[in-house]
């Protein structure tokens, strides 16, 4: 598809990796961005680019609104939509072992599909163009995402309650071949659910495939305490010593870190993926975001799953990431809106190995969203980046494009599924699991 | 206007003040609710109510979506829209004295109007049907709100930098007579901006008019410390001893309370109005919500002004009020979604003296909203109240009605102003204040 967006404000990154807002147009050619720049006669742009004049399938008047990179949700369990508002107001361990795991046991490769479509629909409404997922049945989620046209990076969630290194390897090979939209990294659920022999096998796989490794890391105080009791080391130090991070990676949550943990993340340039809403709601704590930033450790932002959050909304997470850092440090100057927006877009893309989706620029994949600035919460336009982070809402998302295709526009989905059917199925599935 | 909503889920309160969701219809007659109950033939309902068959101006098929009371924003400075994203990332005192006050000095009774309309528009998009406002020029805001059809309760924000008890009295009389939609209570900005003689005059006025008293109370640690240094008492104890609360009232923020403060609020049944987003963003702290609830102290929820928050979004505040209580107490069971929703609706109405707007029931004012449940973030419908509090979004607000009039529907406003004009004016005004 050739699509021309004109009359737009466009959020770009300059050479210092700082956000700039330019006025002009953006051309999409197939799955990629062909041009981002000032408005000129299309013929002039074509001459510059040595390009034949495209035949536009659509020319979209952006009406002075904002085009920006889609949000990258750097930690999620998309299929968990079925447990939204099902088991709340419980501490993490109880919530996980008594409520989530028994219901998850009733999932199969068929009933999980509409639950995943439901999550993808929610991402699109919030301008999220990729999720970094720890899923049940990764090949199934890869199929579902590709079918919807959604970009999905996955990581293994294997643990000693289920799965094996052999299955991880099988998934690795399958998912990475499913579609251009899907990829897979080596990983495991968490130290507290995984025995030493399996962790060692995971490290071997990471070496074999030169893969980064991600896991739930230091989400609760108790998790760190128990790991110290078991191994005399924190989860970060243990996994480092097991040789997990030869090819990078990072951790989800990273709430309780000691000096040595920070050092390892800094040295290896691992990504700390913060999930502020989930950490509050499960009463896990507030991550030390300021220190991650000060140490130059890459940070990305995730929603976590809809059972713990309970929504998949990057605007909520951005506000929280910023505001919680301020109150944690009792310092209202702590972490600027620009830094937060970078984490939610470019930072997430880099964590997922999607360097070709990390900004709006010619040659990058066309994963972008249109933000309606003509709404009261985005006015006046004193500072558009601050408006996005501090007062933005998913209500402002007018259009979500992934890989050059418009999947969501003016509250309508183009993903090959009827919303009403998906809602009906999701309700039926959770009801069928009861009793 | 006679409006019939049918095929609805309706959020009501039972005799134990607990939320229930019934299926049926809701009739609006003029500014009030005439009927809430199960669906029957309209003629049957009329016979029961001994009512002539109404001529409907509109019959609205709610399509199984939710009708619920409008949110009550229990603390706001609506006019501050112009400072949204203008002065961020600063601590409260610096933000207030160096950024807000100098710009506020440039406000007048004309340029403040579009700024207030902008705030009212934002309320409507978030399903807020009333604000409890501490404003510049209260009679002007009363006029603007009445013109838009919006319900506005105001409180005096007098302090020793401007205003006098005489002006408070004048405003009290004027605003309470402006419209059925507007009312005014005695109050003052805060102890830290108000000298003793003025506080005493305010207490006298409260007695004269039998008015509740509200003020910013114990928002920061520093505020309490300085009050203790000045008077040897906390702001709560000082104002109690000055006889402020003979007719009730409460405090905005209430972050730093000691045992005696809790005791006073409990004994007097004063409302603690929590403003979680603002308290985070200005790095003020996290209010002790759990204890307020345990002591049986009324709680309501406010957004505070758009310069500190930076949005006027009750969904954001509800999630925060709940999730922050959980992380503050490190207890994921702390405060249920039901309690939070009660604070955001009924609790706010009671704080503002709007007992006739506190729930959906026959005879109450028709201040209500329609929530679109056919959106991914509201599915599956495991628990609608939890979905509202934990995953709801202003995107779900399909319709906002105040006093029987539909002011917002499907993203369109019916308030007598053109959105584009308001945005243009708001941008012009802040630009004109620069330099």
From TrEMBL, chains A, B:
Coiled coil: none annotated. The keyword Hydrolase applies. Residues 67-407 form the Amidohydrolase-related domain. InterPro entries: Amidohydro-rel (IPR006680), Metal-dep_hydrolase_composite (IPR011059), Metal_Hydrolase (IPR032466), MTA/SAH_deaminase (IPR050287). Keywords: Hydrolase. GO terms for molecular function: hydrolase activity, acting on carbon-nitrogen (but not peptide) bonds. PANTHER family: AMIDOHYDROLASE-RELATED DOMAIN-CONTAINING PROTEIN, AMINOHYDROLASE SSNA-RELATED. This is Amidohydrolase. The lineage of its organism: Bacteria, Bacillati, Bacillota, Clostridia, Eubacteriales.
